[in-house]
Design brief:
It is a single chain. By secondary structure, the chain is an alpha+beta fold. It contains one helix and nine strands; from the N terminus they run αβββββββββ. The chain is globular, with a radius of gyration of 19 Å.
């Protein structure tokens, strides 16, 4: 095998490995989104419309991510957070533009699921803080979906 063929073979092997790793990473965020949507199912039966857009990524244990969202007075919102890591513990909280906790008391956390409920007193920007509180993984994929009625 000549030198060019060896380089080409190595390059194609490396490219194949990168593609497989990218697919695995995307599948993990997709899996996390599936869990977030699973948490939303009972609320859909109550009339909440789940938006198609969502946020996702990965966080280390103890790390937080802020998501800014425009919410409107007169609507009611739920934000559902999920991860595919069974033994992970996640949380989600909603703050108004003044940094005050804005969520309702029926917000909840159950292992690798969490949900926050808000009925905005004013229209404006709100901050949804997602966190991986604990996880057996170095980085834990998460997804956040929301619905309104």
């Amino acid at each position: 095998m000549n030198r060019f063929a060896k380089v080409l073979l190595r390059s194609s092997s490396l490219l194949a490995a990168v593609i497989v790793m990218q697919r695995a990473a995307c599948a993990s965020v997709d899996d996390a989104q599936s869990f977030a949507l699973q948490a939303a199912e009972p609320y859909v039966k109550q009339g909440f419309q789940v938006r198609e857009d969502y946020w996702g990524g990965d966080l280390a244990s103890g790390e937080k991510k802020a998501v800014r969202q425009q919410l409107f007075k007169g609507n009611e919102y739920w934000f559902w957070l999920g991860t595919e890591v069974d033994r992970a513990k996640v949380s989600v909280h909603i703050y108004d533009s003044d940094g005050k906790l804005a969520e309702e008391p029926d917000s909840w956390e159950k292992g690798h699921f969490a949900a926050a409920h808000v009925v905005p007193k004013t229209t404006g920007s709100y901050f949804v803080i997602v966190s991986v509180e604990e996880s057996p993984e170095e980085r834990t994929h998460w997804a956040l979906v929301y619905g309104f009625r």
